[in-house]
Design a protein that fits this description.
There is one protein chain. The protein is built from twelve helices and 23 strands. With 407 residues, it is α/β, with parallel strands linked by helices. It has two domains: 248 residues, 4-Layer Sandwich (Metallo-beta-lactamase, Chain A), CATH 3.60.15.10; 140 residues, 3-Layer(aba) Sandwich (Rossmann fold), CATH 3.40.50.360. Helix 4 packs across helix 9 and helix 8 crosses helix 12. The structure holds MU-OXO-diiron. MU-OXO-diiron binds next to loops. The site of MU-OXO-diiron has 9 residues, from loops.
């Protein structure tokens, strides 16, 4: 097949692939995505940074060859840099090495070297150089600086800075699962991209928030942050203006939240739903923003996205057989998995339920929410169908939750 490489700077090309028809990535709903890889031409060495996912080799290979043709050079890669080993960025690493230069130098973090072998079981015969923060590689008139970035988002994650151009190849960090024909941030609205980056951060990076804070401090203290003129992640658009995304990462990673409450509910006979809507009215009456999710229809990945910058949540599920309605369970597991405690934000929670005749949902939801780091400040447990008095109580509890988060 034919596919064009996209020039980002002199001798620097995007050679990734567009996965137009992908709609889920390990349970995370996406509108397609890209797996970004980059080819950098030094005066002495040509470097491939990262790789692509299964089923994508032909498109990738065509783009790599096009970059060589644009540069008027033979198809030979001298150096492979692997910033992270997850399969969406490494599936064809071995095949690419075999095709473009079995004697090439290979660089990765020590964890990445182990993880490649654990996943593919065919790397142990290759000599891969372990690199970490402080290591550099001269490729002829250009320098690659390696920056360890553990837990951003795997223990093996690493950034590579092309020093002279100030291009930070950040792998998953700063990425977005979006799928477009153009490659740069400036081609799409900033608000849209930051929202997609928030979804990405919330679902894939939140757990690494303490490491992110340390990394941003380190980059600031070493002055490296001022050298970054462009951020080239492994998914989505390339940030030619890195300021806004770095600022957002700093906020998300340190628990900065809005006066916003995410209301999440499920319902059997619309009673818990009535409570959800009244609680939302109460919150809104205090001028606080509400995002509402109905778990029969909505995905937990979107819920997680909004909880990231919410100061509180209101969570509702009816009681079924003395337990929370099970459809809420998928979202609860996601909530526990991402672990918002890592951001340092302290989020309040109101739990509500139509308990039928007996109840039981609230006790379990409270245990689970507290384990996930939320402070349960109030509950509302209602017999069967709420009457007007109960709806008024729900309104007031929503208003009280809103007042509790306002500065
Ligand atoms: Fe995009 Fe951790 O892989």
């Amino acid at each position: 097949m034919k596919a064009k490489a996209v020039k980002m700077a002199d001798g620097v090309y995007w050679v990734g692939v567009i996965h137009w028809n992908s709609r889920t990535f390990h349970g995370y709903g996406i509108p397609g995505t890209t797996y970004n890889a980059y080819l950098v031409f030094g005066e002495e060495k040509t470097v491939l940074i990262d790789n692509v996912y299964r089923g994508m080799f032909e498109q990738f290979d065509a783009r790599v060859k096009d970059a060589f043709e644009q540069e008027g050079k033979d198809f030979k890669i001298d150096v492979f840099v692997q910033n992270h080993s997850e399969m969406d960025h490494s599936t064809f690493l071995r095949q690419t090495i075999e095709e473009y230069n079995p004697d090439a130098e290979i660089y990765a973090s020590a964890n990445c070297i182990k993880f490649l072998e654990n996943q593919y079981h065919n790397f142990s015969d290759l000599e891969i150089n372990a690199v970490a923060t402080g290591d550099e590689l001269d490729i002829g008139g250009r320098t690659l600086k390696f920056v360890s970035a553990p837990m951003l988002h795997w223990p093996d994650s690493m950034f590579t800075l092309l020093a002279e151009e100030g291009i930070l190849f950040s792998n998953d960090a700063f990425g977005q699962h979006v799928c477009h024909s153009k490659r740069f941030d400036k081609d799409y609205s900033l608000d849209y991209l930051l929202r997609e980056a928030q979804k990405y951060y919330a679902n894939l990076v939140t757990l690494g928030s303490p490491m992110l804070r340390m990394k941003l401090n380190e980059l600031t203290e070493t002055g490296l942050i001022n050298e970054i003129k462009m951020i080239a992640p492994c998914h989505g658009q390339i940030w030619t203006n890195p300021g806004p995304i770095v600022e957002k990462y700093s906020e998300w990673g340190s628990g900065v939240c809005k006066d916003k409450i995410t209301v999440i509910y499920d319902t059997m006979h619309h009673s818990t739903e009535k409570l959800a809507f009244q609680i939302a009215e109460g919150i809104m009456s205090e001028g606080v923003e509400v995002e509402m999710y109905f778990m029969q229809e909505d995905g937990p990945d979107d819920v997680i996205t909004d909880i990231l910058d919410s100061k509180a949540i209101a969570l509702g599920a009816p009681t079924m057989m003395n337990k929370p309605f099970p459809r809420i369970g998928n979202m609860m597991y996601w909530l526990d998995c991402v672990n918002f405690k890592g951001t340092g934000s302290e989020k309040n929670a109101l739990i509500f339920s139509s308990k039928g005749w007996g109840g039981g949902a609230i006790a379990k939801l409270q245990r689970d929410l507290e384990e996930a780091g939320f402070t349960v400040t109030d509950t509302l447990d209602v017999l069967f169908v709420p009457d007007e008095d109960v709806l008024a109580e729900a309104f007031e509890k929503g208003a009280e939750l809103a007042r509790s988060i306002k500065e």
